Amino acid sequence: MTHSLRKKPRAAAFFLTFVLTFALAAPLSASAAPQAPLAQPAAQPKLVVVMVVDGLPNEQVQRYREQFGQGGFRRLLDSGASFSNAHQAHGITVTAIGHTAVLTGAYPYQHGIIGNNWIDPVSGQSVYCTEDRASTYIGETTKPDDGTSPKNLRVDTLGDQLRYATGNAARVVTVAGKDRGAILLAGKTGTAYMYMEGSGNFASSTFYMQSHPRWVQSYAAAKPQDRYYGKTWTPLLADAAYAGDAPDDTIPEVSNRFPLTMGSKNNVRDGDYYLKLKTSPFLDELTLDFARAAVEGENLGRNPAGVPDLLGVSLSAHDYVNHKYGPESRMSHDHLQRLDRMLANFFTYLDGRLGKDNFVVVLTADHGFTNAPEFSQGRHIDAMRIPSKKLIADLNAHLAGKFGIDKAVRIASVPNLYLDYPQIDKKGVARGAVEAEAARFLLDQPGIANVYTRSQFEAGGGSGTRMDLLMRRAWHRQLSGDLMMVTKPYVFYGSGSTGSSHGTPYAYDTNVPLLLMGQRWIKPGYYGQYAEVQDLAPTLAHLLKVRPPAGSEGRVLTELLK
To answer: In angstroms, what CA-CA distances link 1 with 4, 13, 168?
Structure first.
């Protein structure tokens, strides 16, 4: 004990001498050596390009990456930041919801886009996500339920915030093969252009303007969509490259495979031909061609006000191809290879137009895809299609026998089922009892994994699983059904034996590519951290130095920022 006490003063004296010596010496050395200037924050990018590949699972990007060229997906993967564990973090994974997530940073319970279609609980009528009967396409035929405006979107987007922050000087332009792909990226104050399957043109709607600008008129007059008539889609790579793909006869009812010739039944350039382009790489080629025209026509990235612009591009064809042939098919594989080369050309164009140091590119997807049931069954996986009409008819028959209620499920837009509460109340039956009985019946049916009820959601119930979280995010109190079904893995709603689909909370539907590239702003790397597509809006808001959208719940991906 005495020995220890003797050593402490000596150690303290030494430490004090060291500190004083360092304190006196530091100013001398600091004045002798020049100081490095503080790093200045990078300027805002002149153009942010947000790309969504409709229906692209992350696994396809990883599985085929060695076959990609150097300038497209490989440039994003090698020179940018890529996340292996990025997700569309809601339980109903469809096009409208996925596109809404990208630039709102919000979930369906808040933004109100709960599906491609849903049921108006008051009228009982079907609602299309972007329909607005007060607006029409410019110069094109418009059906009552065509997508013409963001009227149903209940929150704002990154583009809206950019426009607000710049006094509307920033230009926000979006283009897509699907109306919902363009409109839900454009937000409330951007301008959306969408492919018209009746004419092959790209058109906007009267929600945005009364007539197209001159550059759009000039583009349409050249009729670039007609150059593919008679053109044949054949595999891009050697046969050996497709050796791991599913055989062409995996889905028996789908017979039209390679080679595919673009034409029409009437042997003229008509609606049949323009519709056929949608299930081919030529739709994406047209979309990127129109995007180039928009960059030049609107002078995107060279804003005279000195503020950033935003370009949204949704490439729709991969979704159509996967629906028809399955993501395991040669058709899907080849389409992705062709899209890779298109992206390379587009990035090279941006390099030349703006300079590599002046733009940021983001690429993600609105949802993934499950394999076709026939393919999964061949791998000893329990997979199937559920005929939803029969399922609902059987449920109604069961509830009628149990409670004496005729057609208790008044209408359905799967996975949402809407109960006839007035009729249930009139019978004097507790709503919760009908919900619980319906859930019990459905859980006994083949292919159904879980059922959520309105009472359960409103009471905040659930087991605390990730599925609970994703499905709760997907449920909107005013718009969603009174029952929400979840299929088992590799099961989806449909009849017959054609194609594949998506829409579940399982990883094959939620795990999507999340790729960001920008030399001055983005730190290249392969990131394993969990990320959500909802993180894009706050991250881009940070880069653009604007406030995030009002409904944004994502995080800033600080790990990838320089």
So the answer is: 5, 20, 77
Q: Whole-angstrom Cα distance, residue 15 to residue 7?
A: 13
Give the number of other CB atoms < 10 A from CB of residue 33: 8
Q: 4-37: per-residue pLDDT in tens? A: 333 333 333 333 333 333 333 333 333 334 444 4
Which SS3 state, helix, strand or coil, does residue 165 take? Answer: helix
Question: If we measure between CA atoms, which residue out of 437, 429, 367, 354 comes closest to residue 399?
Answer: 437
d(Cα 345, Cα 339) in Å, to the nearest integer? 10
**Beta-carbon count within 10 A of 391 CB:** 22
Cα–Cα distance list, 374 to 180, 247, 253, 378, 516 (Å): 30, 11, 11, 6, 35
Cα separation, 287 vs 294, whole angstroms:
10
Chain segment 178-210, per-residue pLDDT in tens: 999 999 999 999 999 999 999 999 999 999 999
In which band, very low, low, confident or very high, does the pLDDT at 42 lie, cut at 50, 70 and 90? low
HSE value, Cβ hemisphere, 13 Å, CA-based, for 122: 1
Characterize the bridge pairing of strands 172-176 and 191-195: parallel
| Sequence-ordered list of residues with C-beta below 8 angstroms from that of 230, at least 6 positions apart, any chain | 261, 262, 263
Q: Of 499, 495, 414, which is closest to residue 451 (Cα–Cα)? A: 414
Question: What percent of the residues of the chain are helix, what percent strand, and what percent coil, each to the nearest 5?
Answer: 40, 15, 45
Cα(364)–Cα(324) distance, integer angstroms: 21
Helix (H, G, I), strand (E, B) or coil at 11: helix
Give dist(CA 105, CA 63) in Å, integer: 28
What is the distance of C-alpha 217 from the center of its chain? 29
C-alpha 439/C-alpha 395 separation (Å) is 10
- Residue 499 backbone class (left: φ over 0; alpha: ψ -120 to 50; beta: rest): left
Average pLDDT over residues 478-495: 96
Report CA Rg, the chain: 27
What is the Cα–Cα distance from 63 to 246, expressed in whole angstroms? Answer: 14
Q: How far apart are CA 429 and CA 525, in angstroms?
A: 58
- In this structure, what token pair is assigned to residue 201? 């043109």
Strands (DSSP E) found in 445-517: 448-453, 483-487, 491-493, 514-517
Q: What is the DSSP letter of 548?
A: P
Peptide bond into 415 cis (omega under 30): yes
pLDDT digits (tens, 9 = 90+) for 499-558: 899 999 999 999 999 999 999 999 999 999 999 999 999 999 999 999 999 999 999 999
Domains of the chain: 47-378+504-512+521-531+542-560 (3.40.720.10), 384-489 (3.30.1360.150)
C-beta of residue 512 within 8 angstroms of C-beta of residue 90: no
Q: Which residues contact 521 (CB under 8 A, 6 or more apart)?
A: 42, 45, 360, 543, 561, 562
